[in-house]
Design brief:
Oligomer: single chain
Number of helices: 0
Distance between the termini: 22 Å
Largest sheet: 7 strands, antiparallel
Structural class: mainly beta
CATH topology of one domain: Methylamine Dehydrogenase, Chain H
CATH architecture of one domain: 7 Propeller
Shape: globular
Length: 339
């Protein structure tokens, strides 16, 4: 694997910079999602910015203040705000109110299920509304740090202090508790439903093999892991938090237990956000110095998408077909790459 020196613009690395369509959002972007082939950049406050084929930017007001969280299933983006509202933005451009918190608390986290169910949290309470519009809630011991639906069945993981609670909203059984000391934030099921992984407040991941709740410690990061993405088929989990992309192996029944992670695309900057390709063993990584690289997972071959020297990359996403990559930096500078 050839290392790219961000300080040397003559480094011999393949580049697709000239194929990127620049997009000027004009305000900080926290995430980006595709609705069909239109990229929707979620701003830090009030607006979603929809960008079509000619890179024209159309702002749409969705909240009355800060946008705290967002999730998308490809047909809609659901967002929570500090105005206590949960809203959906559809591919047709419609904005619909899903829920308003009774206490007007911030909506901190949101997750979507393929069958149309939506989950969100405010304070210590997680809510689920199924496609039948039946709303249920669960209180956990501390503020909810993250939410994720299992890929099979209506099962919700609720991350919080000292562990993760697994809840079947449609069953009377008591929720299952997976304990591990510390503050658990982001959480994700593996695509095969065999593993659960959480990001910690400390610079580490923690995981459980769901068949027997065996612990999986994934440590050694210099910084907190704020972004993770499953490779196609769930064979590996790409993570931020270091000056390389850390790839944990999940192709066997033991997951990463007893195995060393792969380390791809080292730079003199920290990885800020990762996004695996939906169809091939390729991923994109954005760095704290504004660099964006694409790389093949099997051999680490790299392609430069964006040069360093700007604000940290804050958002990356592929469209469902894997033919478009959208990105944005914290200062609102963004772009679209067609492959």
């Amino acid at each position: 694997m050839k290392e790219f020196d961000p300080g040397d613009n003559s480094a011999s690395i393949a580049s697709v910079i000239d194929r990127v369509r620049p997009v000027k959002i004009g305000m900080p972007v926290t995430s980006v999602h595709f609705l069909g082939d239109s990229a929707a950049f979620v701003g830090a406050e009030e607006n979603v910015f929809v960008v079509g084929g000619e890179a024209e930017v159309s702002p749409v007001a969705v909240h009355g203040g800060g946008i705290m969280c967002a999730a998308s299933d490809g047909g809609r983006i659901v967002m929570g705000g500090d105005d206590g509202k949960l809203v959906a933005f559809s591919a047709s451009g419609e904005v619909a109110l899903i829920a308003t918190d009774a206490k007007r608390r911030w909506i901190d986290n949101v997750a979507l299920h393929p069958d149309g169910a939506v989950a969100w949290s405010a304070g210590k309470t997680a809510f689920v509304r199924s496609g039948k519009r039946e709303e249920k809630s669960l209180d956990v011991p501390s503020t909810v740090g993250g939410l994720a639906f299992a890929p099979k069945g209506l099962r919700l993981a609720v991350a919080h202090y000292n562990g993760v609670t697994l809840w079947f909203p449609n069953m009377a059984a008591q929720p299952e508790f997976l304990g591990w000391a510390g503050s658990h934030l982001g959480v994700a099921f593996s695509p095969d439903n065999k593993f659960l992984v959480s990001t910690m407040h400390e610079p580490a991941l923690h995981g459980w093999r769901l068949a027997d709740n065996r612990h999986m410690r994934m440590t050694g990061y210099p910084g907190r892991v704020r972004s993770m993405s499953w490779s196609v088929g769930g064979k590996a989990l790409a993570t931020s938090g270091a000056d390389t992309v850390i790839m944990w192996p999940f192709g066997s029944k033991d997951g990463p237990m007893g195995k060393e992670p792969a380390m791809l695309a080292p730079l003199q900057a920290r990885v800020a956000v990762v996004a695996c390709h939906p169809k091939h063993d390729i991923l994109a990584a954005g760095y704290s110095d504004g660099t964006i690289l694409m790389m093949r997972i099997d051999d680490g071959a790299e392609i430069l998408v964006r040069r360093n020297g700007t604000a940290p990359v804050s958002a990356l996403a592929w469209n469902g077909k894997g033919t478009l990559l959208a990105f944005a930096a914290e200062d609102g500078d963004a772009g679209l790459l067609e492959l």
